[in-house]
Every structure is written in C-alpha cells, then in structure tokens.
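Figure 2 data, in text form.
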Amino acid sequence: QVQVVQSGGGLVQPGGSLRLSCAASAGSFSIKIMGWYRQAPGKQRELVAHITSDGSIYYADSVKDRFTISRDNAKNTVYLQMNSLKPEDTAVYYCNADVGPLDTSTMFRYWGQGTQVTVSS
C-alpha cells in the first residue's frame, strides 16, 4: 500500500521560515520522485520543487534561493525548508510521490493530504 503523509505548515509572518515534511511508504514499489506542489485560491496547482532518486532537483523560479528541498532516503522522507516567506507563498502545499517498480519507467503518482501555509502579518 502506498501512503504519502505530510506534516508542517501553519501561520508565519513575512520573512519567516517554515519546514514541511513528507514521508512516503511505497510497499514493493520504488520511490522515484518526490516533490512539493502548491495551490492558491483561484490559481492552478503549480510545482514548487522536486527531487529525483538520483538527487536531481528542480525549483520553480518563484521560490529559487528561498526554498530548499532535501531528502532522507533512509526514512523515505522529503523536506521543504521555506525561508524568507512572502504573502504570495500562501497556499495549500501538497507533497507528491511518484512510485513504480524498480528498474522500470512505470510511475504512479500519489498525493499527500495537503497542508495550509499562510504568510501574513
């Protein structure tokens, strides 16, 4: 059974920091990509950052130099350290895990439950 469980989020003042965590359990599948998306009211869900199994990292331009994605392979956990937060970072943040059989290109996308991040004074 595949599970994606995230934690963190909350209210923070502009310029503050917040750390999100996401633990994935994929059973017999290999976890190939883990990432973070966010969706603000009235906007499309957007990719914030992801990290692949080989350590390749992508950041959206809007969060470069402020957010850091990292992973702990032993714990199957990905983190998003968010610094210098801005009001426009306010959104529901979703963790995702792309999983599939080892040594195949097959992947299935699973989502965490989402957590609210609000940046406001």
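Caption note: Residues 1 and 27 are 6 Å apart (CA to CA).
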